[in-house]
Amino acid sequence: MKDIITMAHGAGGESMRRLLADEIAVLYDGHADLDDAAIVPGGPRLAVTTDSFVISPLTFPGGDVGKLAAAGTINDLCMRGATPLYMTVGLILEEGLPMATLRLALSSLRATCDEAAVAVIAGDTKVVQRGKGDGLFVNTTGVGMVGAPQPPSSCSAVPGDRVLVSGYLGDHGVAVLAAREDLPLRTEIASDCAPLHGLVAALISAVGSDVHVLRDPTRGGLASALNEIAADSAVGIMLEEEAVPVRPQVRGVCEILGLDPLCMANEGKLIACVAPSGAAAALEALRSHPLGQDAAIVGEVIDSATPRVQVTTGLGTGRVLSMPAGELLPRIC
Amino acid sequence: MKDIITMAHGAGGESMRRLLADEIAVLYDGHADLDDAAIVPGGPRLAVTTDSFVISPLTFPGGDVGKLAAAGTINDLCMRGATPLYMTVGLILEEGLPMATLRLALSSLRATCDEAAVAVIAGDTKVVQRGKGDGLFVNTTGVGMVGAPQPPSSCSAVPGDRVLVSGYLGDHGVAVLAAREDLPLRTEIASDCAPLHGLVAALISAVGSDVHVLRDPTRGGLASALNEIAADSAVGIMLEEEAVPVRPQVRGVCEILGLDPLCMANEGKLIACVAPSGAAAALEALRSHPLGQDAAIVGEVIDSATPRVQVTTGLGTGRVLSMPAGELLPRIC
């Protein structure tokens, strides 16, 4: 069945990477964009990013599609060290969508943009017949101004860099899964969905160009993001599994359902690869910000003939952390 | 049923205008964007526009969703006198979409961008389950550089301006309708879908700032675009019905189906309001370009206490051309 689209093509893992490389790359002179946002070649130093949000359900503990659509695009700009400035919003509404649902999404989107001082400057609205959509799909495209001469990039990790994460991983994925499947959890897990402009500003102001890579581990989670960094920078990454912050409830749900928290989506976390000299200051900067209180150093970039992510466990044993392959959790963003 | 979304909300007419004003305006400090592309306030002179394309069927005589998605966004930038430079592409794929359909759309999109020297700089791909989408939805967001200090705007029509159209109207709407309903037409009608960067460049180079307004009459056709110009500029517009170029086959299909060609969508035509001193040169510039050979002067901007579009017919009688109200043709773009 390789001639039709499957859910795996949208899951953020290996199938998706192949779809991008084999088919969608035709749009880009043969290479797909590797980073969260593209930097406009020449001319003004603009960063541009686009994302469509097809999350189901439209609201979940900690957020809704509007907040997610704004935060997701703001975060992609921040991952290139850009100051988010403008956003466009494309709506695809399904006939029969309650106006109240639309209103909620729009007001959350607007509130999240306001928080980051981002102006919505253009929009588009389309309506499809009942059964030809799923309530509400939101596309947001963001434009930001790049400050640094060498903005952080997925291609810029170098051996010796420390790998930091800004807090507990997997919250968004588990929160959406629980809301969708109506899982009977003892304590509610909320999505971490949040705009990271302030956290990134704090990090960059503390250690500047020592920040080599910034990524937000969304679809495919930490596993996908680290594998992409390893491939794009042609390095290896050593990950200390016990250092990775995962909430016990998130770990519990993942164990029951056979999911790996390292593959679960996040919408308010970042991964940073930072030069060793700046790592301690970077950690402190993250921890001093409300959205980075649980930040941790979780690994190190190493020389490697093949780009891969190795995990060391508490028992001193090791394994390779692969790019997630098939469908993990569909429509998580 | 005012509390749910209906197909009329997407049809480009009065219901849609109300949805934008009453609900979606919350995104924009209380006022919806009036033009085809927004000009970024302050800083570099950028024009930005976004559009989602949900056309059905995905291919039709004269084009496909990929060509349409590229041309539509290029044209929206051109309507602000901007040079289109960059595009982002957001794809929402339905599980089961044939890979061949995706390939065709991507290669058309790319070819159309190449024609206008536009680079695709960022993208996003999402997959939804079978029955939660309709094959392929494409969002394109465009960024262009604004040249003129006073770019053409829907708000800039002044009494005395001549109203020009660049060729036959209604081709796209009728072509898509015929393809969708499998109408037995004697001669095939092809969509006019085309990027208008060259035509606009020829026009601006001929008459420069005499071009006060540029609009592409897409959803809702000439009727919708002229009513928007009248409202945005607080003027009246006199339209000479017999001067409006409409192909006999298009007129024929519209008569049979009870549709008004003036309300039918176009994807490769422009409307210009031009100062009287420049009108003849503007017409000549349009007619000298392959995409404007059938251009015509079709009316005049007039002083009016209420912004409205008056049509004079061949018999010397008059009527008001209203904003199309309900659902015209769903999913025409």
Describe the structure.
The structure is a homodimer of 333-residue chains. By secondary structure, chain A is of the alpha+beta class. Chain A folds into 2 domains: 33-146, 60s Ribosomal Protein L30, Chain: A (2-Layer Sandwich), CATH 3.30.1330; 162-320, PurM-like C-terminal domain (Phosphoribosyl-aminoimidazole Synthetase, Chain A, domain 2, Alpha-Beta Complex). Chain A is built from 8 helices and 14 strands. In chain A, the strands form 3 sheets. In chain A, strands 9-11-8-12-10-13-14 form a 7-stranded mixed sheet. In chain A, strand 1 and strand 2 form a beta hairpin. In chain A, helix 2 packs parallel to helix 3 and helix 5 (197-207) packs antiparallel against helix 8. The two termini of chain A are 25 Å apart. In chain A, 60% of the residues are buried. At the A-B interface, helix 1, strand 2, strand 5, helix 3 and strand 6 of A face helix 1, strand 2, strand 5, helix 3 and strand 6 of B.
Low-confidence stretches of chain A: none
Helix fraction of chain A? 25-40%
Q: How many strands of chain A?
A: 14
Give, in order, the helices and strands of chain A.
HEEEEHEHEEEHHEHEHEHEEE
Q: What structural class is derived from the secondary structure elements of chain A?
A: alpha+beta
What's the pLDDT, averaged over the residues of chain A?
93
Instruction: Kindly provide the name of the CATH class of the largest domain in chain A.
Output: Alpha Beta
Kindly report the greatest chain-chain contact and the residue count on each side.
A-B, 78 and 78 residues
Assembly form of the protein: homodimer
- The end-to-end span of chain A amounts to 25 Å
Which overall shape of chain A is indicated by the principal axes computed on the Cα atoms? Answer: globular
- Describe the main β-sheet of chain A briefly: 7 strands, mixed
